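Researcher: We're teaching a course module on how sequence relates to structure. For the next exercise, students receive a sequence and then see the predicted structure as tokens, so they can try to spot secondary structure elements on their own. Here is the exercise chain.
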Amino acid sequence: MSAGVGGTAGAVIGSKITGKNKKKSTIAGVLIGAAVSGLAGFIFHRSVEKKEDKIRRETLFNLDRFDVSTPQGFGFSTAHGVTAPKIESEWIPTRVQGKKLIEGHKVWLITDETKWVPNVGRPRNTN
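Model: And here is the predicted structure for the students to work with:
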């Protein structure tokens, strides 16, 4: 889409250039405008994708920080909930194993699983 917008803008600008060959100026404007805006759109799109991927990873691997395991309304009803699992991470360094190069990476371990917890919130109105 950005290449189309840039091409159109380039055509308008190229057609306004005075010279011997308006057709050549218009075509050059289309090509330059499409190339520049297409490249800018590609770079912008990649940076947005990288940011979204980082946020997704941070959220997924830190669910305990976002209190995902607490049910909605917990504390205000008689419903019970579950605790967040305890998770630890371990760094595995880069190593060579036979013909394989295994890059350094993290491994997450669940050290304490979730447990049911009673809700001690206010009782529901039974009227």
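Model: If you want an answer key for the exercise: The chain has a mean pLDDT of 75. Helices lie at 2-16, 22-60.
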